[in-house]
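User: Can you help me understand a structure? I only have the sequence.
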Amino acid sequence: MDGVLLDTERLGSQILPGIVRGLGYEPPEDLYMRVLGCNRQVSNRIYEGLFGKDFPGDEVDRLFFDRLMEIARRGETPLKSGLRECIQGLKSRGIKIALATSSERFVVETYQQHLPDFAGIFDAMVCGMEVPNGKPAPDIYRLAAQRLALRPEECIGVEDSRNGVISLRAAGCHSVMIPDLLAFSEELAPYVDTCLGSLDELCPFIDRLNGNS
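Assistant: Let's start by predicting it. Here is the structure, written out as tokens:
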């Protein structure tokens, strides 16, 4: 969702360090990238490793999402370029769409309520705390495929984070990366089948993959 469908990663990278500093901790420069794509359970483990077991991870998450939801309720959450056209293209091809996000369901529902282009586009959803193990474990993508009545190997997953592409690879989906804050690199190559430049390239890629071009 964030960084693939919604252009929220730059917002997040600005908001999170300020919250951590406000609680009296000095965040490492790459803090946001470390927790990118993680659910609350996984991010709390990362926070504990960085700041100690007394770090208020749940409070950080609450403050972080409060700020993002303020922006969403004003209808100001930016969409990724080409989102509307990509979704229309997938729908016109009869392709089912599942959302597999580390964000919790109330976050997704808030976006759906306040962003018309984000409402009613998913055939299934799996949210952050609805699986035993969050990304980079494969659970979320396996359940998303199951909710589409498909096998993971019949599915393409689209990600922008390291945790996301590792999750896709482990689940057995075709792993597509559309980089946002994190650039594609040789370190990510073992987890990425295809790297695309934007959502505009996704439908033509699917046509080629399905032998329809």
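Now, to help you interpret it: The beta strands are 98-100, 124-126, 156-159, 174-177, 194-195. The longest strand covers residues 156-159. Let me know which part you'd like to focus on.
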